[in-house]
Specification:
By secondary structure, this protein is α/β, with parallel strands linked by helices. Helices cover 38% and strands 16% of the residues.
Length: 412
């Protein structure tokens, strides 16, 4: 397999004597990553397999009996449960086993949805588990093509302890904006990526959500999904989506929440610490991958689709990259700023120590004029914000003034 940035951290954490739960969207590589870490003799249950799922749904207590039947050993026996959300009662079974003997088994549960668990009031093992998340590829896992010069301007740095030789094949910016960053898509031949992304939108988004059984009007949800995908990266407009999809605003809100529960979408809240009185407070919503976004919107993942609106798609990609890095870091927040009179800062990264405003420009030659909103933000936040960045397509970092630097996308 290709190297994943989170592998070493996850392998270290799995040695700790707790129940471990790894969440993430379908096809982000959760099962592949875990199988590369877990010992060869780990006991596995794949709840995506109909026979295993049906058997444990009918009799969850059989899981307890089977674990008790495993031979004792000096160390813990690893028990891996894939797609654990398909049998919520197993979480109670795991708690029973863990509380009975915390050293005999090491349970590792993997899931692609939290909706069914929350709705069923599932016990997520408080005080007994460590939660982990896995995301599509970051630029440190899939290097740029051509290889970049060194950049010291990264907003949320992600560095390997030792750079692996088995990273994913390099990709240029256009390729990323067309097909996104899902591991299976990145590793597939280019000729197959369109079909794979369409299959993801149908088989994984539509069918998985249908299986969740929380959507009563399936046709209305599909209309919503197309609209939400086309509006990805924009400020959420519940009333417009409600009108165009022919559903109520509460239903629109519940559908957006469903996408977040399936780990295929996230919101970016408005920056709330601006001294200005006229700032907007509605969040922006992003699908978690631009390639999936194209397919879910009913658009062909192609260069023509990207170049019909390159700026907004590039901005989405930058926002998703920042979000993934902040999620892996486990601290800091991603925001945006927009005023009622149209002044805007695309992203604001608050890492807990400093605040960095970021503008995204589809330009190879940024100028100081592109930094006017950044400079205003810096003037208004002098105690916390010392620098602003323009992420663009320039060849190398460019200092535009003493506080604003333009950086290439690969230097993010």
């Amino acid at each position: 397999m290709f190297a994943r940035w989170y592998r070493q951290a996850l392998a270290t954490k799995l040695k700790r004597p707790y129940v471990h739960i790894l969440f993430g969207a379908r096809q982000t590589g959760k099962s592949t990553l875990l199988r590369s870490i877990l010992p060869a003799d780990a006991v596995s249950y794949d709840l995506a397999e109909p026979g295993t799922r049906s058997r444990l749904l009918a009799d969850p207590s059989s899981f307890v009996r089977e674990c008790h039947a495993l031979p004792r050993r000096r160390g813990a026996t690893f028990v891996f449960v894939d797609e654990a959300q398909n049998v919520p009662a197993l979480f109670d079974a795991v708690q029973h086993l863990y509380d009975g003997d915390r050293s005999r088994w090491r349970f590792v549960l993997c899931g692609s949805s939290s909706r069914k668990l929350r709705s069923a009031g599932t016990n997520l093992l408080p005080g007994r588990c460590l939660l982990h998340r896995l995301f599509p590829l970051t630029t440190c896992e899939r290097p740029s093509d051509p290889a970049p010069a060194t950049s010291d301007h990264a907003v949320v740095p992600m560095r390997w302890r030792s750079v692996p030789v088995d990273r994913f094949p390099p990709a240029d910016l256009d390729t990323r904006l067309v097909s996104g960053e899902l591991p299976g898509i990145a590793a597939a031949p280019e000729r197959d990526r369109v079909d794979l992304l369409r299959a993801y939108a149908i088989a994984h988004l539509e069918e998985e959500i249908r299986r969740e059984a929380f959507v009563r009007d399936w046709a209305a949800f599909l209309r919503f999904l197309v609209l939400a995908a086309r509006e990805s990266g924009q400020i959420v407009n519940h009333s417009a989506i409600s009108r165009d999809a022919g559903i109520s605003q509460p239903t629109v809100k519940s559908y957006y929440q469903l996408l977040e529960d399936m780990f295929v979408g996230f919101t970016v809240p408005a920056w709330s610490r601006s001294p200005r009185k006229s700032v907007l407070s509605t969040p922006r919503f992003f699908l978690f991958d631009v390639g999936v976004r194209h397919a879910a919107a009913g658009l062909k993942p192609s260069h023509s689709t990207v170049h019909a609106a390159p700026g907004p798609i590039f901005e989405q990609w930058v926002g998703i990259e920042l979000w993934k890095r902040l999620q892996y870091r486990g601290r800091g927040g991603l925001h945006y700023l927009r005023t009622k009179d149209g002044a805007e800062v695309d992203f604001v990264v608050d890492d807990g120590k400093s605040v960095t405003p970021i503008e995204v420009k589809w330009s190879e030659r940024p100028t100081l004029a592109d930094a006017r909103h950044l400079r205003t933000f810096l003037d208004e936040h002098t105690s916390t914000s010392k620098r602003g960045l323009i992420v663009c397509r320039c060849a190398r970092p460019m200092q535009l003034d003493e506080r604003v630097t333009a950086i290439p996308w690969w230097g993010l």
